[in-house]
Amino acid sequence: MASAARIVVLPGDGIGPEVTAAARRVLDAAVSRVGIALDYVDDVVGGAAVDAYRVALRPQTLRLCKTADAILFGAVGGPKWDDAAPDSKLRPGSALLGLRKGLGLFANLRPVRVDAAMVATSALRPERVRDVDLLVVRELTGGLYFSRPKRRYMTARGEAAVDTMRYSTPEIERVAVRAFELARLRRRRLCSVDKANVLETSRLWRAVVNRVAERYADVACSHMLVDAFAMELLRRPQAFDVVLMENLFGDILTDEASMLAGALGMLPSASLGAGTLGLYEPIHGSAPDIAGKGIANPIGAILSTALLLRWSLNQEDAAQAIERAVSQVLGAGLRTADIARDGETPVGTAVMADAIVKALR
Description:
alpha/beta
């Protein structure tokens, strides 16, 4: 019998533990269908780790993650830790940035698919969102979030701050290659988003993407300025297949894209590097205002386990089974509070997970 796949579970803060527990139940139900054994190892990150160890990401946790086949991540942060200094190890968000950098997870995949049952829930008109199926590939370890200098300081005229956006050819090339390879598995269209009319980093980005595109003559490559793309994402989202963008743009625009799918709680993500190790998490935050109430939407976390099965464990059938189960439950009319319309009675986190597990069986 094959050895069990090691899954490091990092629930984090706020609603992270709730949605991660729901996702784990669904993952267990999915793998039981195909006879895969999973070995879960739990650890703490973010604010929970700050409280316990005075650091958001322990070196031991990073080492543990390097031994994993995949990482299931919840969410980090909350007002309790907001006063920590920007570069401090006491900031919960530094855990996620540290994991991405320390594990070399340079490509963040964020699929945006509008389920047929959710068309009426979207903030946009039905004809704007029907049949939307795009994949954002976001560069994850460069740009403004990681480049130096990054600091706040005093001047003779008062306080000032600086963030640096830096990209190199190798950083752009590796994520572009990943995006083109993914486009080959889909509809063979790639749109690269930048701000080349203003930013020098974007001009380099566009030049490198064009060079990579020469290796992929079978993929139609186009470019769009980020502000124009933000408008087109709402006007004609069906026009896009694979969308490639740098770190900051990807962070902002995928939150915008979540409104196509109905709510931020609907979208999963996969953070990948050169190998099969990946970190899987819903794109929403820790939502401390609803933490502990049992009402959080677990679908983004649950769909993240489908990506885990697909990209780290090579279990496509089990991944599709989860996605079908989610679609079936949504089609049956179950809604958590964030996606319920007027007159619909929302269900809680556990009930939604129960229904998806039942659909799997």
